[in-house]
Amino acid sequence: AAPGRPEPLMPNVLITHSDEPLGRRVVKLLWHDERIGRIFALGSGAAPRAFDTFQAGVPPRFAYAPIDLARHRPMSDFFHSKRFREFGIDTVVHVPQHGVASEGPPLAGKVSSRAAEARLVLQRTLATRSIRSLVAVGSAFVYRLFPGNANHLSEASELDLDPNPAPGLRPWIDCDMLFHGEIGSPRLRVALLRLPTVVASGGYVYLHPGLAGRAVPRFRPLGFDPLCAVISDKDAARAVQAAVHSDAAGAFNLAGREALPLSVLGRWTRRPFLPVPGPLLRAAGAGVGRFLRDPLRDALDGPHLRYGFTLDTSRAERELGFRPQYRIGLARAGDGGLRLETARA
Fold this sequence. Notes:
17 strands, single chain, alpha/beta, globular
């Protein structure tokens, strides 16, 4: 701090979905950050074993609790609890559900659990006077994509507000609109981080609507191989850290240095795509949709499977001070096979 000014207060941070891969990485990074005070981690199940060492120490600097983020009563009880008050939480980091068991498209007329969680996290954050900052991890797939791979998207680019978006994209768009609506709040600083496909070592991939869930047969329209902006999981966590320490508010695009064709990303993450003529995909999606869910035409033949994009990240660099430090490439595993690897550039 400058002479005569008090030392800035260290943020006390609440992190959601901390038991999932990206959440665990955020917890670890903030735990080793001397500029962070206390950390309260929330998850859907038992605390990961990696958290055992974090929970040691007196007085405790770290705590973990399982909670259903999509239910009003547990969320209200937690935010009014003695433990929450003792930790003096002033910053919330909302990491959305993103693991292997992430939800599929919502049933017709139903609100997705992802959107329900975002709404309750935002409601409780706004209602808690001690909280001054909210860092929300969102998706770059909320932008409208135009034919080709020439989409270079800034935060001012048009969002995909089509009334019938691809089922896998609707929850991300709903969440984006919720958080974006509070940017400019006189009381709460909101930083919305729009991430592209997140790639972790070993071929794991998160936040891509066409690669979500388990490794099952996947399809893409014949003749299309969209370019995918990517970011390493380590850089994604670093972006969250930068946003926690920043005073900047607004939406921020984040991305790494590389961009990969969807076919390459699918192959090296063991989620290969089978090219199928578009009319067959649309017919199959419409037929299946009559019996199971909302029409799945866009899930099988949507713009994210046809058109690629890259992201303009200059605002994040300018206002958050974030630059990617990790590259995504191929390395040989112990069995001699090639796999995706993230390493410091």
